[in-house]
Amino acid sequence: MARVVGIGKQSFEKIIKEKCFYVDKTAFIKEWWDNKDDVTLITRPRRFGKTLNMSMLECFFSNEYKDRGDLFEGLDIWKDEKYRELQGTYPVIFLSFAEIKQNNYQDTIAKIKKILCSLYQSFMFLKDWDGLTDEEKNNLKRISEDMSDVTAQSALNELSNYLSRYYGKKVIILLDEYDTPMQEAYTNGYWEELVAFTRSLFNSTFKTNPYLERAIMTGITRVSRESIFSDLNNLEVVTTLSPKYTTAFGFTEHEVFNALDEFGLSEQKGEVKAWYDGFVFGEQKDIYNPWSIINFLDKKEYNPYWAESSSNGLINNLVQKGSPYIKMMMETLLKGEIINVPIDEQIVFSELDYSEDAVWSLMLASGYIKVISADALTGDRRKARMYRLALTNFEIQLMFEKMILRWFIPAKNETNEFIKALINGDVEAMNEYMNKVTMKTISYFDTGNVPSDEEPERFYHGFVLGLMVDQTENYIITSNRESGFGRYDIMLEPKDKNNTHYPGIIIEFKVINPRKENSLEETVKAALKQIEEKNYDAELIKKGVNKDNIHYYGFAFKGKEVLIEGKNPT
After folding, report:
1. Are both 301 and 381 inside the same structural domain?
2. Which of 370, 404, 438 corresponds to the end of one domain?
């Protein structure tokens, strides 16, 4: 009989006690302990078992769980006598920053202080311990929600001191989702302030802490050393590209297929693989998304469970407001093709504002794209390593398609009417509705408060993505794109060549050139002329589309103003 699936359970103790479905990851305990690293930072995408593994570590090492070997009986770690003796023998400090999602600096610091207060409450037996001096007991009382920043920054160091002396053993510190407040700080504009506070907190906790045995931090991104880890030369960083702990987070294919067998879903292996496989950690391929797998086992339906478990707001903004280059690369990814880009594992959030390639590093860390292959390492560390990347799986494909369609919600009706007119060859309606679409949505594609010269181009590249997503059922959409709108022709090849309702369509976008053209009318005629002179329809005809069923459109734009002319079969 299949075990019960407990959705959202992140307590190791609860899962084991309630005999819920659990994939044994206890080998991670041995692997980490044997590596003997002082401070380890492990980055993995969200909902990949980071919190559950941290709870598992707490249950294993914490003296609060002394004589609780029953939690590990029958699991991999319990096969080793040495580790049986280690269970429940250390003071452990476990805290999480997962819920720190405030939109300003003051509230973020207040939330951190609240977490520290709650942590101290669980160790209040220390106030009655004779091993503390009167001054140290007073220090305990100073830990409150209105404590100073300096007191908060040294709170974990001091608690380590007290616990180490009380138990006669150095402490293990577990910090889950360390980078959540950092991502919020970037999104909401208080990055620099939080960096300064966090750097001091981490230095006191992990660097100048003589009472620390070992520590683990988990997160989604590797925030650059220069930002918050500048003083931590004892930090071992394990990213999705690293060779360590490759099977400790997420499910391997063997684990997934065993689960499908257990739940009577063996025949679904191929489809499950297409939907939820594709993650790569180090050299370990075929890692599955555990959140989606667990939900599939429970509901036995295919849905983008993981992709829809978060707003993906940061990625959305970076793509929507990104340069034409970003959008062109997204076109490639959405077509199932590979992009070749440099990857820097250290996420420098400030660079996201001006570095076009920084977005790929963030998307890789977040699990939205996967590594197909990489260039060989060279001795020149000034150059970022080039990686060939693709969308991770079908679930991620759906996520991006829905994200792109949401861009046009403010002009949903107008967009739908435009597409109808495009297919029907109604140029007058196309002009009416496209101008309405640009007026309602073009500003959403700009990066700042002041409209940029690139704003219309950002919109049109975004519009191409919208076309690709919206019409994927009826058309194969390709583009022969050159940056800067020297040429950006789009070809819509009907999937059903015999259905005359869906004509072949060729579109040429042009921005007005004041040196060559006096009006949008001249620009749009130049676009149509280019289509004709360069025989853009040759490929459609070669693929079996009747020339009499091909529509040709020139798009000319100046700011938000658009003019469309067409040449349709008579």
Report:
1. no
2. 404
